[in-house]
């Protein structure tokens, strides 16, 4: 187990970074199957994982943020203010996108039990319209925007590697 230091991220940060990257790739597949392949066997395979996995990602980002704050002074410094802002934006998306869906789920009076865990029980009676509207207006849209920003993040990481004038940052997170 190596801790974070000025030139590279440590074991826990890497496991969180790459573990969540794999889970988010799966989340992209379930979203795309829902959007493009409705009523197909592919959607039937992926879609049931969307809510529980989305919830797990929300739990993981809490842990990741706490870990990042604890280790902030020890971590490799951001190359530019734009890079720091980009990473902050990724954290913003990691929080807001699943939170909006949970809000809608709650407001609609629907119980939520990811992996059999009773997070909240449903209720009878009037639904909470503002919660449903927030989720319906923004969850999917911001979800797609999140995936676009991730593609930007990956492109920047690779661009830094191949542009001679830039510092290669990949070894900070990989190797
Ligand atoms: C799939 C979703 C991904 C998300 C949400 C994500 C998010 C982040 C965040 C927030 C950081 C800042 C460090 C931290 O707090 O963990 C970071 C760093 C980094 N990521 Fe990703 N990342 C993703 C995928 C990738 C991929 C596929 C690559 C490789 C091409 C990559 C390469 C890097 C590198 C090299 C750093 C260190 C950059 C530096 O310190 O300047 N990331 N990532
Ligand atoms: C990081 C986590 C998440 C990401 C990136 C994400 C992403 C997305 C995206 C891109 C869509 C649009 C798909 C389409 O247009 O058909 C979507 C739809 C949906 N998501 Fe998520 N999601 C996440 C978490 C969650 C959670 C935690 C729940 C439930 C508690 C949820 C419930 C839904 C539902 C019901 C839809 C279909 C209705 C709609 O388009 O809003 N998602 N999600």
From TrEMBL:
Keyword tags: Cell membrane, Electron transport, Heme, Iron, Membrane, Metal-binding, Transmembrane, Transmembrane helix, Transport
Listed GO MF terms: electron transfer activity; heme binding; metal ion binding
Annotated SUPFAM superfamilies: Transmembrane di-heme cytochromes
Listed transmembrane segments: 15-37, 52-70, 82-103, 142-162
Domain Cytochrome b561 bacterial/Ni-hydrogenase: 8-173
Domain of life: Bacteria
Family matches, as InterPro entries: Cyt_b561_bac/Ni-Hgenase (IPR011577), Cytochrome_b561_oxidase (IPR052168), Di-haem_cyt_TM (IPR016174)
Localization annotation: Cell membrane
One example of a Gene Ontology biological process annotation: respiratory electron transport chain
Similarity-based family: Belongs to the cytochrome b561 family.
Protein name as annotated: Cytochrome b
Lineage: Bacteria, Pseudomonadati, Pseudomonadota, Gammaproteobacteria, Alteromonadales
